[in-house]
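Assemble and predict.
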Amino acid sequence: MSGFLSSSIGKKLIMSISGLFLILFLVVHLTVNLLLLLGSEAYNTAAHFMGTNPLITSIQPILALGFLVHIVYAFILTAVNAKARPVKYEQVSQSHSSSLVSRQMLPLGLALLLFLVLHMIHFFVKLKVTGEAPMIVMEDGVEMHNTYLLVGSLFQMPLYAIMYIFAAIFLAMHLSHGFWSAFQTIGWSNEVWRGRLTWVGYAVAGLFGFGYAIVPLYFLIFQPITL
Amino acid sequence: MVLDAKIPKGPLAEKWSKYKASQNLVNPANKRKLDIIVVGTGLAGASAAASFGELGFNVKAFCYQDSPRRAHSIAAQGGINAAKNYPNDGDTVYRLFYDTIKGGDYRSREANVYRLAEVSNSIIDQCVAQGVPFAREYGGLLDNRSFGGALVSRTFYARGQTGQQLLLGAYGALNRQIKAGKVKMYTRSEMMDVVLVDGRARGIVTRNMVTGAVESHFGHAVVLATGGYGNVFFLSTNAMGSNVSAAWKAYKRGALFANPCYVQIHPTCIPVHGEFQSKLTLMSESLRNDGRIWVPKKKEDAAAIREGRLKGSEIKEDDRDYYLERRYPAFGNLVPRDVASRAAKERCDAGFGVGKTGLAVFLDFKDSINRLGEDAIRARYGNLFQMYEKITDHNPYKTPMMIYPAIHYTMGGIWVDYELQTTIKGLFAAGEANFSDHGANRLGASALMQGLADGYFVLPYTIQNYLADQINVPRIPTDHPAFKQAEEDVKAFINRLKSVNGKQSVDHFHKILGHYVWDFIGMARDKQGLESVIGKIRALKAEFWKDVRIPGEVKGLNTELEKANRVADFFELAELMAHDALEREESCGGHFRTEFQTPEGEAKRDDANFMYVAAWEYKGDNQTPQVHKEPLNYEYIEVKARNYK
Amino acid sequence: MANINVKLKIWRQKNEKDAGKFDVYDLKGVSTDSSFLEMMDVLNEQIIQGGGEPVAFDHDCREGICGACSMFINGRAHGPDTAVTTCQLHMRSFSDGETITVEPWRSSGFPVIKDLMVDRAAFDQILQEGGFVSINTGGVPDANAIPIPKDDADASFDAATCIGCGACVATCKNGSAMLFVSAKVSQLALLPQGRVEASRRAKAMVAKMDELGFGSCTNTGACEVECPKEISIANIARLNREFLGANIKS
């Protein structure tokens, strides 16, 4: 099995599985995100649940590992692939034969990684490490972070909102190839399912892109939090 | 020299089984001690090398291509014959044998052809077991189609790429033996000479085409499976690298060369369109199953088409001359290749030809498309239609194809006996390189059959009969004087070519030679032309040795040197073809002497005087070669005039 | 039919060790009916007449089936036409006055031998690992003993049409040989004859492919677009499936 995982297809499989796992994370994250549109109470309760439920918190290291594996293997594969063509072509014409996105998965991934780092600094660090995020006491007397205020106020800043929207677009692009590609690598594709999976991939990409972009857009336009 | 074909005694149908039952074999432990050299990795070579390896012999296989998979067998399109009688249309081994003899115009050896028909069924079984994806019916069983010269459907096919699939099957078997260490493969290696020790073939000298190194290789036996010599015409359907050189070196070392004038001009090729052209493209004969061949009935219509004023599709049905259906109502468009080719030439020479040059006839699918629908035609011939459109820029679904005959296959080759052994002991020849099975004309879908029969089912037996008493012969080191001398000869030959240092490229001479051969030793020959062309060829050859220019170095990769080596041999072969055509004062199959024809323009054989194989012996540079005759006896077949009406 | 003038920018490299460089040639009066290789013949004739050394390139059958020809033309494997090899590419695909860049396949698995000629022995080595059905000559069942559904036979054939030219590797941004490997694995996996050793085959061929330095597949799909035989990347999914299945089993 170790030979399998170190083979080119094995490495690709690791990329696929970790990628699909990260999509699961994206679903949960998006669901919670969309609660921002419903107001402070719903979102804060959900965020509190996510931050305190032992099941969820115990998955966190696995999630981190998922990211790590996906990123590390992206670099390993890219390095191997670069070695496969030591002398570059003088002229390359690819626009007709493959999509830009499919050729630029690493740069897209890097952009997402950069965003992830910022994202962590803005939210995760404040909530989990320094604890400098504002607090709120709910009606039932439970005290929790006012994540709604933290997130919402950031989204109301045009620079941050636009950055977030761009990240959503990059994510959608990354998924528009990555989703179908993951199934292809696992081998769950054929002449018939290939078309279907491609479209499902586009739909998934579109939903995530739209879902993640709509929240900052909402805060940017309607400015629901008065500071 | 008395030519002994070593045909086993007994009734025709039992000859091969009797031979196998009584031949000498080599025991498994001794096979390891024996080396066999196989030159060429097409159907015959790859299948032979793989089979020898499976039996336990040590095999060294050579090809000039970068991979054995690229041998020109790969380009065969239509199919492979076998007497399976799956369609229940009355086929038998005897009928396949009979059709092949008749198709060859009664100029092939009965015993060989019967054996070919006999093993044909095993070939199909073997290939299917290898995973060759033959065409199948919805019921899951194999599909057949019909080919020229037969009244039954006995041709197995894999779309229009049968040769490719069969070769890849044999190449797979070869790869398996390479992996097993039983076959050592030498690619990009050109055979430069065969080495004889005490009168037996004991190895070859090669030139490594990448490094330029001249190397010797020992073998207890040597098999030449080096294909045909169609490239003597310059323009042919052969691959650019196809050459006669290996066979020619063997000829010069004493192997007889049989029936060199029997060449096949294939009727359905894409017409020549310019001087820059490097090769001709064949459109599979299978197209004649559904395409109808015609020219305009009126000369003025033909002229209008040539000048581009009229399109073929605009000619009315009544103004079309379906000349094959008219002349040969029984076989129609499915007459054998030589007949179809000559009929096309006859119409074009008479002024009814179409295309810009007037050297083309129509092959029309309109009726079939109306009858079966475009999709059915696409399923059958899609890749051929696409190929045609890529080359000509015309869509054959809409406008009739234009075709013209072109040199495609050479029935002549190194003389071999029943065991496929040449007149040099220990030197064998298989596939197109030998002369044995097709007589004066080869039927469609028979070349693949013969190549694989020789390699899978004939040589693995007969070579053992030769090797059985060779088990005590130790491997001869390649520093033996015979090898050293052959190497020196090869190096001297190469240096001589290189040192000419003239002005003209190799292709320059090759193209002129091609025109000579096409004009004088092509579809129609006569005494005067043949006598004159010998002088022309000799003069051109002399010119070549005075004025050819080979740039680059002798060491390292040198494509011009490779070409020059091959063309030097083509000059000599062309001359031999002329001698053979001159000597054979009759018309038969692919050999048509205009002096010998019926009032209707059909070939007129002279069985009383020419029912023999003409095997030529080399007598020295620019010397007239000597002919030896092997009489052909037909005991099991009634010799008749070929009739496809 | 017309004649055009072209400028050719061609990679020249004396041997594997030479650094190599581009040379530029002017070629006038090229018939648009000629194939790309016939144009190269005319160029070589011109070079020889001028005292130079002709451009070396692989070619043989010149009818698109042997897989020998291998040129990277204007940034594309086998040039600007689709579903053709270089020998079937015709000059009508180019315009008058155009500069045409011609390069060899670039891959660590395909070292340059000379000029535009590369060594594709790696493909043979991969197939030697298992690109066959392990049966000896003779002793096989009747050809009609095993019925095979027509659809399977057709799909197998589609994969079997691979000519081993290497365009997939040449065109892949990762220099991956997955299309080539998957074509042979698929052809045989789809047939009962080849099914028997499908697992062993997939593992052995992939291991060899990796060992020879080809890149990994990122599913861009460029290979199937440039493949002269239009072999589908659905075969790559099948290879992945076979490989995964083989490794789960053992």
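Chain A has a mean pLDDT of 94.
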